[in-house]
Specification:
The complex is a heterodimer of chains A (308) and B (290). By secondary structure, chain A is of the alpha+beta class. Chain A has eleven helices and six strands. Chain A has helices at residues 3-10, 18-50, 67-73, 79-83, 119-123, 162-166, 204-208, 221-224, 235-242, 261-269, 274-277; strands at 90-91, 103-104, 143-146, 174-181, 187-194, 216-219. Chain A has a two-stranded antiparallel sheet with strand order 1-2. A two-stranded antiparallel ribbon of chain A has the order 3-6. With 290 residues, chain B is mostly helical. Chain B is 50% helix and 7% strand. Chain B contains 13 helices and five strands. Chain B is globular and about 55 Å long. In chain B, 48% of the residues are buried. Classes of the chains: A alpha+beta (308), B mainly alpha (290). The interface between A and B is large, with 47 and 63 residues. The structure holds iron/sulfur cluster (5 copies). One iron/sulfur cluster binds next to helix 4 of chain A.
Chain lengths: 308, 290
Amino acid sequence: MDTGQTKPASKAPAATTPASVGRRKFINSVAAAAGGGCLLALGAGLYSRSAAALPAQAIRPPGALPESDFLAACVRCGLCVRDCPYDTLKLSDLGDPVPTGTPYFHARSVPCEMCEDIPCVKACPTGALDRELTDINQARMGLAALVDHESCLNFLGLRCDVCYRVCPVIDKAITLETQHNPRSDRHAMLLPTVHSDACTGCGKCEKSCVLPVAAIKVFPRELAQGALPAHYRKGWEEKARHGGSLIGEQVEMPVRGFDGPTAGRQATETVVAPGASGAGLPPAPAAPAAPPVPPPKGVSGLNSKWKP
Amino acid sequence: MATSTLPSKPAPAACAPARSLWQHQRWLILRRSSQLLILLAFLTGPWFGLWIAKGNLSSSLTLGVLPLTDPLLVLQTLVTGHLPYSSALIGAAIVLGFYLLVGGRVFCSWACPVNVVTDAAAWTRRRLGIKTGRVPDAATRYWLLGGLLVAAALTGSLAWEWVNPVSLLHRGLIFGMGGGLFVIAGIFIYDVLVASRGWCGHLCPMGAFYGLLGKTALVRVAAPNRKACDDCMDCFAVCPEPQVIRPALKQVGQTHPLILAPDCTTCGRCIDVCDKQVFKMTHRFDQRSE
Ligand code: SF4
Ligand code: SF4
Ligand code: SF4
Ligand code: SF4
Ligand code: SF4
């Protein structure tokens, strides 16, 4: 940007001629224009990044691309808003916590009625709402969560069930799970339980919760959902999938230190070497394959000769 | 709104027959009607249930068949790496073709709602006789245009749309607005107090983009009757891009009377204000002088 100063300096004698002054002025103004222009655009870019995460209660229309892709695709035309027959959707305004001009809804005000023909998706000219979504039950606008166990009537042992009953995906997205009520010790509690594999995030449950402030709320999925580490396996699921245990017979570990070394000796004598007894079963990758430790010479079993 | 000529100007009654209000405001009235009709086409739906156009200037569907999309927005979307559906692409192609044919900045003076605000600001500035301020370089808008494309590529989002006053105002007028009004008020104050024609003439990247489409414009303003010019400077005072008039009116660097500079918004305000009737609306091959 200091080209305006360095250029005339290289031609020192000409530095004071009107032509050079004019050129310097020109270069300065171009530099200012470039700087100003870039700064303004950069500012807009930074601003857009700083506020790019959706606030907790703003839900995108069905079929919306993941938020970062959505912000690239949506031209903020409001055609989805116009074609929603329930006036669910609205466009955000500058200063709203949702990116300027983009469509969203607030479930407690007007939830999505899950239209079978999904007119909002059909109306979108850009693909910000993905036309791959043809079955509204596959929509994943957000995820409901029963956030307030202290206020939910069912958690208090009553039978409200309203959120469960209004759910368009009843018995899949919300189930009532029976639990013993420890307070009365003779009744059951039927706990509304949301299942992420079926909840569309329509928000009907949040809208209908009978409490003054909903105990069940819908959030963008990134906010509502945790994630297990990728390598975690649920043993019971793996077992069910394979039709049996994956790690063969369990090694029975000695229980030591109760009544002298004999107890330990007896336990160790029943130990089966994993290699020997597991031969009949398919080799399981998850099973620990540590070789059996040979007992030290002259000592039988695991007697450590420890004496109190 | 920009109704008046310079307050200091002597009455022209002596030398020319008085022109009627229509003669004096014709293009302004037509332009404001066009801007209003475009807005109304989007508002009859929500107001009376009579749907003519849905959406807004960013992208719309007229009578359920005609898609129109802002080509600059589609360009930004492409830069982020997203390929829009064909309806948006076709809409952008139609708009692009129209403005290439008619004249890029026809958008500015005949469609853009911010134009009403900045015209009002220019009128206020003339009325109040404000001469001070600092005008940014006119090339700033091209840098901004480049900058917003770079911002779109870097952030992977339509960054400019967070603040773009043009879509803020048009969307706001149709879908309701709050915070956007501050931006519009800011532009008005900036144009009145800081820079004459500051926003539309020097900063707006959308105007710059449509300006780039103006090189092939068929509809052009010309100054065929330029020998009648008495240097009253009314046209220069009222023109949003005064630098475009000189070549045609004073034969600077050209002999024909056509205003071919793409910055000309084809607003026809010079035709309105000139009591000598120097200017007229014509096509780009009309080289005649009277
Ligand atoms: S599915 Fe129906 S109710 Fe839900 S947002 Fe779309 S148009 Fe509106
Ligand atoms: S129709 Fe598509 S592009 Fe238009 S506002 Fe809705 S999501 Fe965005
Ligand atoms: S948001 Fe609530 S009502 Fe809608 S599908 Fe999910 S659990 Fe059911
Ligand atoms: S509607 Fe509300 S109070 Fe009733 S069961 Fe559902 S979350 Fe609990
Ligand atoms: S320069 Fe920009 S704000 Fe001004 S009229 Fe043109 S598009 Fe609208």
